[in-house]
Amino acid sequence: MTRMPAAASEVRLDVVVVGAGMAGATLALALAQGGLEVGLIDQTAFEDMVAPTFDGRASAISFAAFRQWRALGAAEGIAPHAQPIAQILVTDGARPGAASRPAAGAWLRFDSDEIADRSEGEPLGYLIENRHIRAGLAAAVRRTAVRVEAPTRILSVEREPGRVTIRLADGVVLVAPLVVAADGRGSRLRQEAGIGVVAWPYGETGVVATIGLERDHHGVAYEHFLPSGPFAILPLTERRASLVWTERAARADALVACPIEAFEAHLRRRFGDFLGALTVQGPRFAYPLGLQVADRTTAPRLALIGDAAHAVHPIAGQGLNLGLKDVAALAQVLIEAARRGEDLGGEGVLERYARWRSVDTMGLAVATDAFVRLFGNNHPALRAARDLGLALVNRIGPARRLFMMEAGGATGDLPRLLRGEVS
Amino acid sequence: MTAPASSLDAAEIEKFAALAQAWWDPKGEFAPLHALNPPRLDFIREQALGHFGRDPRARRPFEGLRLLDVGCGGGLVCEPMARLGFTVTGLDGAEPSIGVARAHAEAQRLAIDYRVSTVEAMVDASEAPFDLVLALEVVEHVADPRAFLRDVARLTAPGGLMIVSTLNRTAASLMLGKAAAEYVLRWAPPGTHDWRRFLKPEEMRDMLSEDPLSAQGPFGLVFDPVSWSWRLGEDCKINYFMTFSRPARTTKGEGGRSRRRQTGSR
Fold first, then answer.
1. Is the pTM value of this prediction over 0.90?
2. Which CATH superfamily does the domain covering A10-82+125-199+291-375 fall into?
3. How far apart are the two ends of chain A, measured CA to CA in Å?
4. In chain A, which residues have their Cβ closer than 8 Å to the Cβ of B83?
5. Model pLDDT for residues B233-249, shown as the tens digit of each residue
6. B107–A161: do the CB atoms touch at under 8 Å?
7. Which of A49, A81, A234, B8 would be B4's cystine partner, CB 3.0–4.6 Å?
8. Cis upstream peptide for A235 (omega within 30°)
9. ipTM rounded to 2 decimals
10. How far from the centroid of its chain's Cα atoms is residue B135's Cα?
11. Residues B81, B49: contact at Cβ < 8 Å?
12. CA-to-CA distance for B251 and B249, rounded, in angstroms?
């Protein structure tokens, strides 16, 4: 044996993932499938993460990201709740009531049929409630040998030259060559590693709720750019929709707190009645919006994924997709490194991950930011330019198809998992 | 151990000893070796899996096999090989390099037998031969390559495999391998390599022709400037591998049995 025995109380693993959210759980699955011994730590129990009150958001999942779940055996629990997006209608709804008639004014239309030949007939993507994603992933993780430590509290994370030691409140000590920070926007591991962020708060809050519709949405996602901020009705299964309503923070708080009848009345005025009566189902949530990108995605024996590395504006629906691309790239780098016997937390291995993801992360952060700024501004000249721009993009088929492929996650140097292949 | 024996070049050893601390810095003086390492490790793994008929899905497929890495430097290849299950012995003439290698392996909690020694000394001491013997980027630094390669071959057990990699002596390697690496890209300190010492694949084959070995190769290593990385390929003009397998003792003079499955060039 070339490996020295570990101290009795230590659990030796290949990788410890801190944060069992959607990105963290997917990474744990991917690494376990690649034959690695993985620990997954969270302060919240899996059971609590799938409660309707824990996370009210829905995520747009690109077909590439969904393919990854399929390859990892997590899709079966998620698929019944996945609403295919057949069409995305983007409109400039500056005029009162314009939102009710998407055909009015200049607008941009994305249609899944146009890229069918390159996306193997798959839709533009899916809309899925986060709680269903979390439940599907939790079930899949439980079928693997992943060592789940949740709920628990981390006492300390010591990153030393040869290894990382993680001490948990219940006395468990995990030792691995690499720790992955999947602990979200306010990542503690990122802060402890001294990695700064470039943050750009929008001063806006996204009000999120699930809406029951009287008429079928036919898989159409509506994104209206109102003067106060983007307003989206995203199709869900069972004739429901996820509402993302952006407002200045104070007004958003009022919208969440006001009586349900008042909220529904506001909603009708904004959205119109072409999908019939709208009824709010379950609680309303408020999420502050802001762009945030970490200065670095790695530090010695540490890799950042998901929101810990980058949190973008939710309007393009790319936040989780970006995190899932991190997962696919990091999983491939680590599984290949393990096959070669390389040090999984070594500088050379982490550098490969950082280089693979850097262009994508910055590109998307800048593009979504520009998108939000362009549409979030109500200056008449800018509006005219924007109307013209939308009309132009709409005319130019190739440009629009490229936008769609990008939103679908099928451009760039794709990791194998995003092509639906198992490493 | 001091005073390395004949085939080594004292000046060459001095050169590496002075740089020992930089072995594990992927951006330091040995950056080119760090860049070479992934495809190198892939090649060794593939060859060894095929030769020894091991399970490619196993996490430690080479459990129970003994490996000798000649000219191991700071242990860039020894450590991955130990993680893949080999019982590893690392050999280097430069004492500071071995010191760095030992300290690094300890931090990684890897048990590797590092020695300041030479292949001559090991042959003279009648060391038990090894299943896999590696001599990577080292033959171009020795004074007597023929004597060196024959000693390496002697340390390869019956049924075992020997893998050698080096720089080819071509116009391309002078331009890219040496001039580019040392002067333009500032990868290696100027003077790291003497182009006249580079061996051509057929020369290496000739040097070992008297030994009962079955030679395969050359297999090329190609630099891709777009991804700024090396990969295995057909082109052997700059950097290449040769493999030599020693027939198992039970078969007389036929190299066939030890080569259960040759993966060949990719």
1. no
2. FAD/NAD(P)-binding domain (3.50.50.60)
3. 27
4. 2, 341-342
5. 888 888 899 999 999 97
6. yes
7. B8
8. no
9. 0.83
10. 3
11. no
12. 6
